[in-house]
Design a protein that fits this description.
This protein is mainly alpha-helical and about 350 residues long. The chain is globular, with a radius of gyration of 18 Å. The chain contains 18 helices and no strands. It has a single domain, classed as ADP-ribosylation/Crystallin J1 (ADP-ribosylglycohydrolase fold, Orthogonal Bundle). Helix 3 packs antiparallel against helix 4, helix 3 crosses helix 18 and helix 9 packs across helix 10.
């Protein structure tokens, strides 16, 4: 079934992009270019990468781990994420990573939200300032579980899924764009169609949650796509790195990832290779780009050797089974979506 191949492709693409970007994350673009050129496969983390050093080739990071956590919670909640349990599982994951000596831990928005919860702030408010890319990096399972039509319902479900840590218009817009593109791909949309739907979802998502100051995600996705249209991939990546940005801000990472998707129609592995070679937060950018392109083109477009290496390095992921279970929710969730998410505070737009 094409839908099953695309659902698995979304999770596989996420994990492949994440693992490709593991050794290069937070390195400058110039360092990556001199050391690797464009990555052609999995590499172990170098000793000078203070975040991932010591990790073997093909090992995934927080992007994949947290997406799997979210996916399992969606299944257990039949489409609705238990926010208290989500926070607890993220905290437990963080503790396990610290215990294992990893420096690749929870991001700033999630850590801030968990601290707020510890102080007695309710889950509806703990994500009040969460505007970084954590919600977008782990949202692909929602794109598998929920149909893209009606779009406002999908966006509402996305807002609910990440509310405890990322309850801002910027974060919801970025996560909605990714989930909508994934969902559209599973429904059979071509790449251009999926990216168009991503922009519309970001427009809707930007009106939900709390206001924080920042550039409009939908506008930046459209601009980034136009910026790289017709350009050589190397030139395009330089422009993305210098102008769009490769940081943890949602309004950088999501437009960067979707712009890279547009460079390699039909080749999701090339999308992940180039995204992981970008620099900055390139494991997350490659994970997002891999999820979208994997949903559009399917798991079968990834080289068999890459899939084998990823599976061998991460034997507990079981992404195909997770994709099947998420796909089983599609069109059959009992959970009712939120009626529009959290409105902005009066006077803040």
């Amino acid at each position: 079934m094409r839908g099953r191949d695309r659902a698995y492709g979304a999770l596989l693409g996420l994990a492949v992009g994440d693992a490709l970007g593991m050794p290069t994350q937070y390195l400058p673009r110039e360092t990556i270019a001199a050391r690797y050129g464009v990555l052609d496969g999995f590499r172990p983390a170098p000793d000078d990468n203070v975040i991932s050093r010591g990790q073997p080739a093909a090992r995934v990071t927080d992007d994949t781990d947290q997406a799997v956590i979210l996916g399992r919670l969606l299944i257990d909640g039949r489409g609705r994420v238990d926010q208290v349990r989500f926070a607890r599982e993220l905290r437990d994951w963080h503790k396990r990573m610290v215990g294992a000596g990893s420096a690749d831990l929870l991001g700033p928005s999630t850590l801030r939200a968990l601290d707020q919860l510890d102080r007695g702030v309710p889950p509806e408010e703990s994500g009040r300032w969460g505007d970084t890319n954590g919600a977008a990096m782990r949202i692909a399972p929602a794109g598998i579980a929920f149909s893209v039509r009606p779009l406002d319902e999908l966006v509402s479900r996305v807002a609910q899924a990440g509310r405890v840590t990322h309850n801002t218009g910027i974060a919801i817009a970025g996560a909605a764009a990714v989930a909508a593109a994934v969902s559209a791909g599973i429904d059979g949309a071509d790449l251009s169609g999926a990216l168009d739907i991503a922009v519309r979802a970001a427009e809707i998502g930007g009106r939900l949650g709390h206001y924080v100051a920042g550039a409009d995600v939908a506008s930046r996705i459209a601009w980034a796509r136009g910026l790289v249209a017709g350009r050589d991939p190397g030139e395009a990546l330089d422009l993305i790195y210098r102008l769009v940005g490769a940081g943890v801000a949602t309004q950088e990472a999501v437009p960067a990832a979707l712009a890279i998707c547009s460079l390699f129609p039909g080749d999701p592995f090339a999308v992940t290779r180039y995204a992981a070679s970008l620099g900055g937060d390139c494991d997350t950018i490659a994970a997002i780009a891999g999820a979208v392109s994997g949903a559009v083109y399917g798991a079968g477009r990834f080289p068999a050797t890459i899939v084998e290496q990823l599976t061998a390095a991460n034997p507990d992921l079981h992404l195909s089974d997770l994709a099947d279970r998420l796909l089983g929710l599609r069109g059959g969730t009992d959970a009712r979506p939120d009626p529009g998410g959290t409105p902005p505070e009066p006077g803040l737009g």
